[in-house]
């Protein structure tokens, strides 16, 4: 199974599987309680992922009010795989409403959060520690200094960001490079055929600055499995979007057309819609890993076959076309069509040929010219 082929995460030496395991639904408390799983229900999902060779596991302090980390800590200890797995968790969301320093990205909360996560996960280090969401106010310099201190203290091995504007990640990485601090190696963002917003800025930023993107909700929370159908006020079907969908996002004609294209591509390949959708995400430019969520071991098992086939260029083009959102405003000026019209008229100027590898520069101040 292709899960035992590991790739480097961003510009780092950390080897990770291209499908990682999302555990937002491990536990039955808090925000994600509606579709949460008990430890006994989570165990077969976790075990199946390990059996397939997967090593990259995602959680957050806030998932199921801390239960996700607690269950994961128990399952990792039980399976005796702490050193083998790449354990990722996140901080930002408040763990004590009303307490101003129990959330956000300030140094006080970051350190409190890492200590609490280590306790729940029953470990003395995190492989990857992510800022969960930009809090709009903490200076980026404070965050990067604290990541660096946590790395030096041995509490975390690598630092990363999730759900931040691309300018923020670029500023964070540039600051770390300029001051020889621990860099950001990963960026966790929503990405799927149904949500391609990050293609506007984040993907190029990640490729340029060495941040491997991990894609969350790669199946759009289950929409891309094809198990839902349009209904009066949203969608209907069995699954976690079935109820939320009624009051949740408005599913548009474009979404249903995309689903029809996905169904026909999957049919031609003889794979499930979920497998085709996951293959597309995991093999898009800049994507290090797709974070797969599953409600059962059998769902996960089916999805883990997503990298066992190649998506031919013609079928990828059909999916690209069906899911594309035409760039608006200033982003129109960065398209190949606009550039060959006004920036490079009459000449072909483009990317370097495949195989060309520019030297990686170390932007420590003493090395810059
Ligand atoms: N950084 C962030 O802000 C952020 C936000 C969200 C998620 N995440 C991470 O990303 C992970 C994955 O997110 P996600 O759960 O939204 O991912 P997803 O892969 O888009 O959706 C997973 C859900 O789709 C349904 N599904 C999956 N495979 C299926 C199959 N073969 N047949 C039928 N239904 C299937 C299941 O839900 P049902 O069975 O209930 O339908 C499953 O829970 C999370 O666990 C978390 O680690 C991060």
TrEMBL record:
CDD domains: AKR_AKR9A_9B
Domain NADP-dependent oxidoreductase: 18-322
SUPFAM superfamilies: NAD(P)-linked oxidoreductase
Keyword annotations of the record: Oxidoreductase
Molecular function terms, GO-annotated: oxidoreductase activity
GO CC annotation terms, alphabetical: cytosol
InterPro entries documented for this protein: AKR_Detox_Biosynth, NAD(P)_OxRdtase_dom_sf, NADP_OxRdtase_dom
UniProt protein name: Aldo/keto reductase
Species this chain originates from: Nonomuraea zeae
